[in-house]
Amino acid sequence: MQQTKLMTENLREMSQQAPVYVLYFLCPDNTAGEEDEEVIFRADCKLWKLVKLEDGKAEGWRWQERGCGIVHINRHKTSGAGRLVMRMRGVLKLLLNTPIFPTTRYEKVGQKSVRFVGVDTEESQSCHGEARVD
């Protein structure tokens, strides 16, 4: 209480000498559901998704870039369950959040790429993904 009073008095004195600008920063809620998990692996990554062509001219598939960011392999501290989590660099938008099952196949493609199958909740269907470590 005393510190706040002193700060207010100081601001009043300063405002008589020159304009005073006060900035308020809104801090986002930093709970991301990862508080009970430990990070086992972390790397810069580019995420790609295999999507079906819907242009009407040709049928087929193509790789679509989902974004760049940091991919984490997390393990829950009590249950031991693992998952892949990736957030977009800068804005922290969630790009990938998929559980790791012992039956999931991860295929190394080239020197820096890993291909796997996951479920895209936005489209509610199974999809193929590829992560490339930068």
How would you sum up this structure, described in words?
The protein has one domain: Pleckstrin-homology domain (PH domain)/Phosphotyrosine-binding domain (PTB) (PH-domain like, Roll), CATH 2.30.29.30. Helices cover 12% and strands 49% of the residues. It has one helix spanning 2-17; strands at 37-52, 61-76, 82-88, 94-100, 107-109, 113-120, 125-133. It has a 7-stranded antiparallel beta sheet with strand order 4-3-2-1-7-6-5, with no helix packed on it. β1 (37-52) and β2 (61-76) form a beta hairpin. The longest helix has 16 residues, at 2-17. It is extended.
Q: CATH homologous superfamily - what is it? A: Pleckstrin-homology domain (PH domain)/Phosphotyrosine-binding domain (PTB)
How many DSSP-defined strands?
Answer: 7
Q: What characterizes the major β-sheet?
A: 7 strands, antiparallel
Category from helices, strands and their pairing: mainly beta
| Radius of gyration, whole Å | 23 Å
**Straight-line N-to-C gap:** 50 Å
- Biggest sheet, spatial arrangement of strands: 4-3-2-1-7-6-5
What is the helix/strand order?
HEEEEEEE
Strand content of the residues, in percent? over 45%
How would the global form be characterised? Answer: extended
Q: How much helical structure, as a percent, in the residues?
A: 10-25%
Count of runs of 4 or more consecutive helical residues:
1
State the CATH topology. Answer: PH-domain like
Overall mean confidence score, pLDDT: 75
CATH class: Mainly Beta
Number of structurally distinct domains: 1
Low-confidence spans: pLDDT under 50, at least 5 residues? Answer: none
Shape-level CATH architecture:
Roll
